[in-house]
Amino acid sequence: MSSAEVVQRVVLALTAAAAIVWFAVSIADRDRLADAQRIFFSPGTRAAAQSAGARAAGSPSRRALEARLRGALAETRRAQALRPGDRIPLTARMFYYAYAGKRRRSLAAAEELTRAEPRNRAGWLAIAALDPRQAARALARERALVRVPR
After folding, report:
1. Which residue has the higher pLDDT, 79 or 138?
2. Where along the chain do its domains lie?
3. Span 107-125, mean pLDDT?
């Protein structure tokens, strides 16, 4: 076997190894996000979120919602650590905060999302829904992203 063939095989093996690692990280990332959804949207979360506004901060349903939120947020941060450029974990955090009634944190996540991805329609729609002062600008930006067929 010539040295050129050996080099080709080594390059092929390294490429295959890199692809395997990338796929493994992608799978782990998606598993973390699935875990976050399972944690946050487990039975009783919707009822806890709906009654949380009317109950005191220390109520059992509010504490359960806060615990689920902490768990889900931790999973999204783990997912983001696996793939730092991926904005899906940030989008998930934005929705989890909104669902839990944490409007300021949801708005901050939406603003971070639109800074990182100015073409992200979900971020602009969230800003429009969460902040009346920015709603007109956010909706105009979102409309500009939508291509209307002629």
Report:
1. 138
2. 1-83, 102-150
3. 94
Nearest 5°: the CA angle 18, 24, 25 is 90
Percent of the chain with pLDDT over 70: 85
Q: Would you state the pLDDT for residue 54?
A: 45
Q: Give per-residue pLDDT as tens, 80-103.
A: 887 888 898 899 999 889 888 899
Three state DSSP letters for the chain: CCHHHHHHHHHHHHHHHHHHHHHHHHHHHHHHHHHHHHHHCCCCHHHHHHHHCCCCCCCHHHHHHHHHHHHHHHHHHHHHHHCCCCCHHHHHHHHHHHHCCCHHHHHHHHHHHHHHCCCCHHHHHHHHHHCHHHHHHHHHHHHHHCCCCC
Whole-angstrom Cα distance, residue 136 to residue 108? 17
Note whether 123 and 114 are within 8 A (CB).
yes
Q: How far apart are CA 76 and CA 97, in angstroms?
A: 12
Contact, 71 vs 81, CB < 8 A? Answer: no
